[in-house]
């Protein structure tokens, strides 16, 4: 019920425009096309919640969705835009690292990775940042429906092994927005971060 209450609050171009740093925030990040918007929509049981984040002008913003007085879901800009120039990338990286580093309200980061192509360079960068800053991270291996059950489990096991070795605060699960595989598990993780 908490997640169904999600509604768009505001968009901020950078940390200084974010709402007051209070309460609980959980941020969603991932490469463009990894399935972040679809996952947010399914998690919040809404058809087009995260479309708000894809409105022109908002794609490079920190988009805030409010759950209740104290709890917020944050849709971070998708990354992996190959054609963007180096300066734009640098500004984006700086903004994101500022946010992860400084935001007290931030309790955890949900990282979307396509189950068929996990651990791309920028995914690893996110894992490294969060690890350094001791921010818990939960990976949704998205589009699990695109693989057989066996293949998907293999991908999950392989990622887990990698995480266990290097990232003690990270966890991972399979997820599909198409058939809602893993939805309960994702809710449980969010509940724990939101202290709900
Ligand atoms: P975003 O750029 O990370 O927000 O990604 P989107 O949520 O817009 O999804 C990118 C594409 O992948 C779209 O064509 C979606 O329909 C598709 N997609 C997203 N999630 C799933 C999923 O769980 N299963 C399948 N089969 N396709 C998905």
TrEMBL record:
Protein name in UniProt: Probable GTP-binding protein EngB
GO molecular function: GTP binding; metal ion binding
Keywords: Cell cycle, Cell division, GTP-binding, Magnesium, Metal-binding, Nucleotide-binding, Septation
The organism of origin for this protein: Thiomicrospira aerophila AL3
One BP annotation, GO: division septum assembly
Entry cofactors: Mg(2+)
Family of this protein: Belongs to the TRAFAC class TrmE-Era-EngA-EngB-Septin-like GTPase superfamily. EngB GTPase family.
Domain of life: Bacteria
Domain EngB-type G: residue ranges: 22-196
Membrane-spanning parts: none
């Amino acid at each position: 019920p908490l997640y169904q209450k999600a509604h768009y609050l505001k968009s901020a171009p950078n940390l200084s425009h974010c709402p007051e740093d209070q309460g609980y925030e959980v941020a969603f990040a991932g490469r463009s096309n990894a399935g972040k918007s679809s996952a947010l929509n399914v998690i919040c049981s809404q058809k087009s919640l995260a479309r708000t984040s894809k409105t022109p002008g908002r794609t490079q913003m920190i988009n805030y969705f409010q759950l209740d007085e104290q709890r917020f879901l944050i849709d971070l800009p998708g990354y992996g835009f190959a054609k963007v120039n180096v300066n734009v990338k640098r500004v984006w990286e700086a903004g994101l690292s500022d946010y992860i580093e400084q935001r007290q309200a931030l309790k955890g980061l949900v990282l979307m990775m396509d189950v068929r192509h996990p651990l791309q360079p920028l995914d690893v960068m996110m894992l490294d940042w969060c690890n350094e800053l001791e921010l818990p991270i939960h990976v949704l291996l998205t589009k699990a429906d695109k693989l057989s059950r066996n293949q998907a489990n293999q991908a999950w096991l392989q990622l887990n092994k990698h995480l266990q070795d290097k990232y003690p605060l990270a966890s991972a699960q399979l997820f599909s927005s198409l058939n809602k595989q893993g939805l309960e598990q994702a809710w449980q993780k969010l509940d724990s971060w939101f202290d709900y």
